[in-house]
Amino acid sequence: MKVDYLIIGQGLAGSLLIHELNKAGKSYFVFDNPDLKKASDVAAGIINPVVFRRMTKSWLIDELYPQLLKTYAELETVLAVKLFYPIPIKKVLGEGEADFWQKKYVDNGLHNYIQSNIESNQSQYISSSFGMGLVDKSARVDLKLLIEKMKNLLQKQARIRFEKVNLLDLKLTNDQVRYHDISADKIIFCEGHAVSDNPYFQDIKFKHTKGEVLRIKTERYSCNFILNKAIFLMPEGRQFYRLGATYDWDNLSLETTQQAKDELQEKLSKVFNDRYQILDQQAGIRPTTHDRRPVIGIHPKYNRVGIFNGLGSKGTMLGPYFAKQFCDYLCGKTDGLHPEVDLVRYFRK
Ligand SMILES: Cc1cc2nc3c(=O)[nH]c(=O)nc-3n(C[C@H](O)[C@H](O)[C@H](O)COP(=O)(O)OP(=O)(O)OC[C@H]3O[C@@H](n4cnc5c(N)ncnc54)[C@H](O)[C@@H]3O)c2cc1C
Questions:
Q1: DSSP-based three-state secondary structure for 139
Q2: Quick one: which atom of ligand 1 is closest to the CA of 282?
Q3: Domain residue extents for the chain
Q4: Residue 313 C-alpha to ligand 1 middle, in angstroms?
Q5: Pairing mode, if any, of strands 209-218 and 2-8?
């Protein structure tokens, strides 16, 4: 088989790149390791255009936002499912934070993304003496469904194999990449945190982050917004909620821990007082770089090897824009990648 691109990994990064390659009329074949837990399966899929700690816009959000709306709408059509759910985030404010919220609304030009007025709390199950700030351009993307439906489509088209790619079997020549019975013009690695084992990318400074989430069922609490205060509590239908997430830079195992469960419950107890049942706990590893920017591009020494990775904790926002940019770059429609994401930043002396 001869294709334009071999894509390694079908998490969010791989799926978004595949979508762009489809639109560009390129051929590809995908390998995905079924034994490795995807970050994309664990992620809450929240789109939050604001960095609460500093009350600034999230990096590049004015550019990312229109593209993400476009991409998820296209994917909803292609995959014939609903994926994108606009839903407000209500941030429980501490003492003095209401003034900070209103000041930064003006100073940082946040009017497209948040409300300036502070809401008073209407729920008996939430403790919030100083009111709540409202983000009204936030959303949730059903990543699990996106990946599942994309996988089914690829399977139907016989364009995916469920196996781990063994790099010892990869042959690079001047005019092609060969892996077993498939030859391609280029190979693009979208491996998530497993990239750390990839010999082509040992120069990239990764700083992956483990995250854990709980799925809970509340006794009576029911709402249609994401509650935020050091944790998020995101509705997933009736009284079912996703509670997350932890950040751990040291323990990068995929096992769930009692420590993370305790931490999430403890943080929740500070703002929430309904009883609930824990249904499930999951762990995943966010593929993150040292500067928290994605890492994208063609290897400066191996011109048939590329990477689309480093989506960190904001894959749902960053992914659509940079998948489009990378595909345009691969197709020769643009000269360069954004300098802050370009892989070559790790190779400059
Ligand atoms: C707890 C948690 C909560 C999160 N919440 C959010 C959120 O609310 N909003 C948000 O935007 N982001 C969130 N994220 C981050 C988000 O999950 C990531 O940005 C995104 O999913 C990364 O996608 P990826 O495709 O790069 O990696 P992955 O989803 O991990 O996919 C990588 C794929 O590559 C495959 N692979 C690797 N090596 C090989 C190989 N050699 N051969 C074949 N296949 C291979 C793997 O099997 C896997 O399928 C969260 C992450 C975690 C862990």
A1: strand
A2: 1
A3: 2-43+144-203+293-346, 88-138+207-286
A4: 9
A5: unpaired
* Inter-CA distances, 337 with 12, 153, 213, 230, Å: 20, 29, 33, 34
Euclidean distance between CA atoms 257 and 254, whole angstroms:
9
- Using a 6 Å cutoff on CB, does residue 160 contact ligand 1? no
2-8 and 28-31 beta bridge pairing: parallel
The finding on whether 306 has its CB within 6 A of some atom of ligand 1 is no
Cis peptide before 245 (omega within 30 of 0): yes
With respect to CATH, is domain 2-43+144-203+293-346 assigned 3.40.630.40? Answer: no
Of 286, 296, 314, 317, the one to substitute when testing ligand 1's pocket (max ligand atoms within 8 A of C-beta) is 286
Contact call for residues 52 and 101 (beta carbons, < 8 A) = no
Mean pLDDT per 10-residue run, the chain (349 residues)? 98 98 98 97 97 97 98 98 98 96 97 96 94 97 98 98 97 96 98 97 96 97 96 94 97 97 98 97 98 97 97 98 98 95 91
CA-proximal residue: ligand 1, atom 38 (nearest): 191
Produce one character per residue of 210-241: b if its CB has 16 or more CB atoms within 10 Å, e if not. bbbbbbbebeebebebbbbbebbbbbeeebeb
Q: Is the CB of 32 under 6 A from ligand 1?
A: yes
Looking at the domain that runs over 88-138+207-286, which CATH code has it been given? 3.30.9.10
Task: Fill in the DSSP letter of residue 234.
Answer: E
Its pTM stands at 0.97
